[in-house]
TrEMBL record:
This is Solute carrier family 15 member 1. Residues 683-705 have a biased composition (Basic and acidic residues). It is found in: Apical cell membrane; Cell membrane; Membrane. Belongs to the major facilitator superfamily. Proton-dependent oligopeptide transporter (POT/PTR) (TC 2.A.17) family. It is a multi-pass membrane protein. It comes from Xiphophorus couchianus (Monterrey platyfish). The keyword Metal-binding does not apply. One of its GO terms (cellular component) is apical plasma membrane. GO terms for molecular function: symporter activity. Keywords: Cell membrane, Glycoprotein, Membrane, Peptide transport, Protein transport, Symport, Transmembrane, Transmembrane helix, Transport. It catalyses: glycylglycyl-L-isoleucine(out) + H(+)(out) = glycylglycyl-L-isoleucine(in) + H(+)(in); L-phenylalanyl-L-phenylalanine(out) + H(+)(out) = L-phenylalanyl-L-phenylalanine(in) + H(+)(in); L-alanyl-L-aspartate(out) + 2 H(+)(out) = L-alanyl-L-aspartate(in) + 2 H(+)(in); L-aspartyl-glycine(out) + 2 H(+)(out) = L-aspartyl-glycine(in) + 2 H(+)(in). Residues 683-714 are annotated as: Disordered. The keyword Cell membrane applies.
Length: 714
């Protein structure tokens, strides 16, 4: 029912379907990606390094698959079918991710922890693989398909479309990075209420379904061009033929040619060879560029993990760690016009020749400075973090619930315990003696901080142990000890600590940052309430003493022990590093694409687009290598390492750029076009000469044969 050639304000109506499709797809991708590293860490229980590794493996696949998508679209299916089919794959991946994040699927004992984590990991990996194939495969097709909707006389409208298209990308990215972390922070679940990763992945999956439907609805209006062969394939074949031909003609007696690609002249015309030379010249400059992306894409991994150890309370609003990524698209919207209309004109007025390659060099240097800023912030954070033990030892704190001092011998430590003894490091097992009682061997998990409560039952000392291994960074993590003479029930908001038997510990419960209201109820139905203000990431043990009185406010009776201090470094300190990185991105990325297009032949811009995306993939692979191989004990040292590597690469790129000679592809192609008639004349002349020689030889051969026949007759 929709017809082609329908226009609104001079624009094809079909492009509005494409713009809406792109907005929904980018919302889906960036929304899922915003919470991905926290999903790995807190749901799948992976450590920071492994979470970072899998995150960057996924991003690398997303930027490798565009090459496959471009080849499929141009050589086989065409852009429309490629977008539809790979969007279906994409949608399936998003749905699988959402299903894999539902912990109730395998939570048979209803304790809030999946019983079969392998099942969830398998679904997550399959989902991410399908998403990588889908989002990467359609990436080179959608913008080009939008450009195909315009006629040759609509150059101005086409240019405006690409601006709107880019705006839709940033709008989708910005909104999803704000909304998805909010969805993740919600509570959901059948058996237990936990952070709602199924919702955080489910909404992007729904947006991907909307994206696919909107795109298909506009099918009847699209201008669909048939696949005409992929230029990347032709370029690769030309390069391969030149290499093989040179290898077969490697004898020193064979004359050398001016350029190694000239060995393809036997099969390919000179114009194509000249175009490939221009492309390779730019691709050679791409070699150092992946290092920039290695730093840039850590905004979604290392920088997000850094934010989990910081205070996100901005007064009027509380920022989640994964929402700090929104600073990047916000600053892009500000920095692009600032650079174009203020910074660059000022530099031009100062008579400075700020060439594209110099801009790229400055962009890389700014990214290096961003990681220096991140290292400085990390040093401040490390000074406030608790000193957790290594995996071969643990820490223990003792709390005395007996009405007199007691003597403790724990491993190599001996002390009199009045009320509280600070943490000490111990081996994984140690001997514990209380007063003159019998010795007990205590075995605690490695890498944990433990609280051991000493109680007295029937004139016998006993101890109750509880450990903290993973600190909940964005919430407060608390536990209660019931020293009262009967079972107590404790709730905070919708969360419950359950029924706590006398002289026993509750389980740990995550409590959101802010003011929490605890309600304690005894078996007789009497209640008391106390309130407490919590910062991000703190951990407390609350002790309910035997003499607590159940009245409206029992706060004076509750004793608290601070196990882990709240995050004290504010998230706002990340803004300078985001500002430097975004400034580097604007100078580096926008200029890089502009430079690449200005130096590329008209029919090979897609090749350079694929090469540019490939640098992003290689950059993420570099992160994998460094994260796994460096094994630096401190995160700030890793930031400094990345900054140093980028500065080194920046110097190398500056040297390469110094020797680069700018070209005009249009002029070169025009020169070849003018030379073609002369070449054709030469070829025709050579063919004529060849035909004349062949005819002459044929006549001689016939004359010779006739002579032989005559002689035989005689």
């Amino acid at each position: 029912f929709l017809k082609k050639n329908v226009t609104i304000f001079g624009y094809p109506l079909s492009i509005f379907f494409i713009v809406v499709n792109e907005f929904c797809e980018r919302f889906s991708y960036y929304g899922m990606r915003a919470v991905l590293v926290l999903y790995f860490k807190y749901f799948l229980k992976w450590d920071d390094d492994f979470s970072t590794t899998i995150y960057h493996t996924f991003v690398a696949l997303c930027y490798l698959s565009p090459i496959l998508g471009a080849i499929i679209a141009d050589s086989w299916l065409g852009k429309f079918k490629t977008i539809v089919y790979l969007s279906i794959v994409y949608t399936a991946g998003q749905v699988i991710m959402a299903v894999g994040a539902i912990n109730d699927i395998t939570d048979g004992n209803k304790d809030g922890t999946p019983d079969n984590m392998t099942f969830h990991i398998a679904l997550s990996m399959v989902g991410l693989l399908l998403i990588a194939l889908g989002t990467g495969g359609i990436k080179p097709c959608v913008a080009a398909f939008g450009g195909d909707q315009f006629n040759d006389d609509q150059e101005k409208q086409r240019s405006t479309f690409f601006s709107i298209f880019y705006l839709s990308i940033n709008a989708g990215s910005l909104l999803s990075t704000i909304i998805t972390p909010i969805l993740r922070a919600q509570k959901c679940g059948i058996h237990t209420q936990q952070q709602c990763y199924p919702l955080a992945f489910g909404v992007p999956a729904a947006l991907m379904v909307v994206s696919l439907i909107v795109f298909i609805v506009g099918s009847g209006m699209y201008n669909k061009t048939a696949p005409s062969g992929n230029i990347m394939v032709k370029v690769c074949k030309c390069i391969f033929f030149a290499i093989m031909n040179r290898f077969h003609n490697r004898s020193s007696q064979i004359p050398k040619r001016e350029h190694w690609l000239d060995w393809a002249e036997e099969k390919y015309d000179k114009l194509l060879i000249a175009q490939v030379k221009m492309v390779l010249k730019v691709l050679f400059l791409y070699i150092p560029l992946p290092m920039f992306w290695a730093l840039f894409d850590q905004q979604g991994s290392r920088w997000t993990l850094q934010a989990t150890t910081m205070d996100g309370n901005f007064g009027l609003m509380v920022i989640q760690p994964d929402q700090m990524q929104t600073v990047n698209p916000i600053l892009i919207l500000i920095m692009v016009p600032v650079m174009d209309f203020i910074i660059y004109p000022l530099i031009s007025k100062c008579k400075l020749n700020f060439t594209p390659l110099r801009k790229i060099t400055v962009g890389m240097f700014l990214a290096g400075l961003a990681f220096v800023a991140a290292a400085l912030v990390q040093l401040q954070i490390d000074a406030t973090l608790p000193d957790f033990p290594s995996s071969t030892e643990q820490q223990a704190k003792f709390i005395n619930m007996v009405n007199r001092p007691i003597n403790i011998t724990a491993g190599k430590y001996a002390f009199q315990l009045q009320a509280l003894q600070e943490y000490n490091r111990y081996d994984l097992s140690f001997d514990l003696t209380i007063d003159s009682g019998s010795t007990e061997t205590i075995r605690l998990p490695g890498g944990t901080r433990n609280t051991i409560v000493i109680v007295e039952e029937a004139d016998r000392m006993t101890n109750i142990k509880v450990s903290i291994k993973v600190r909940s960074k964005s919430k407060s993590n608390h536990i209660f000890f019931n020293g009262f003479g009967m079972t107590l029930n404790i709730t905070v908001g919708e969360e419950g600590f359950g029924n706590i038997v006398s002289k026993n510990m509750s389980t740990y419960v995550d409590v959101p940052q802010g003011t929490a209201k605890f309600v304690i109820k005894n078996a007789a139905g009497s209640t008391c309430v106390f309130k407490r203000e919590f910062g991000f990431g703190s951990s407390y043990t609350f002790i309910i003493p035997p003499n607590v009185t159940f009245e409206e406010n029992c706060e004076p009776h509750i004793k608290e022990v601070e196990d882990i201090k709240a995050n004290s470094i504010h998230m706002a300190w990340q803004i300078p590093q985001y500002f430097l990185m975004t400034s580097g991105e604007v100078v580096f990325s926008v200029t890089g694409l502009e430079f690449s297009y200005s130096q590329a032949p008209s029919n090979m811009k897609a090749v350079l687009q694929a090469g540019w995306l490939l640098t992003v993939a290689v950059g993420n692979i570099i992160v994998l290598i460094v994260a796994e191989a460096a094994t630096l004990p401190d995160q700030w040292a890793e930031y400094v390492l990345f900054a140093a590597l980028l500065v080194l690469v920046c110097i190398i790129f500056a040297i390469m750029a110094y020797f680069y000679t700018y070209i005009d592809p249009v002029k070169i192609e025009a020169d070849f076009a003018n030379l073609e008639p002369e070449d054709e004349k030469k070829k025709n002349l050579e063919m004529t000469k060849k035909d004349m020689v062949e005819n002459h030889d044929e006549k001689k051969r016939r004359s010779s044969n006739e002579g032989k026949i005559v002689q035989t007759n005689f």
